[in-house]
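Example 9 (inverse folding). The structure is encoded as follows.
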């Protein structure tokens, strides 16, 4: 168990910032797990094993979403930016540029 999520002395950080850092680390780990399962599933020849891994990957997606929602509730500007990008049709880069501008 490491403490790599802190880039500044943990004792100088507020409890709120330490929680935020832990949740960022958790979000990263959930994203990594989704990617790892994607690779395993693509190579697994056993149908039943693949189904179990797909189920596990789906759970990691839920964890990722909950972590992200927690973080967005703490960062209104981040939330506003993502509201202009996520679940929207159209050009992703254009939506991103417009969302960034709108959230400043
Ligand atoms: Fe998870």
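The amino acid assigned to each position is listed next.
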């Amino acid at each position: 168990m490491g403490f790599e999520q802190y880039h500044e002395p943990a004792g100088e950080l507020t409890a709120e910032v330490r929680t935020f850092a832990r949740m960022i680390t958790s979000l990263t780990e959930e994203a990594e797990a989704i990617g790892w399962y994607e690779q395993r599933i693509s190579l697994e020849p056993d149908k039943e094993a693949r189904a179990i891994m797909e189920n596990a990957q789906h759970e990691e997606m839920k964890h990722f979403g909950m972590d992200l929602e927690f973080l967005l509730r703490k960062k209104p500007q981040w939330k506003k930016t993502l509201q202009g990008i996520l679940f929207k049709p159209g050009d992703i880069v254009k939506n991103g540029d417009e969302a960034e501008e709108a959230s400043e």
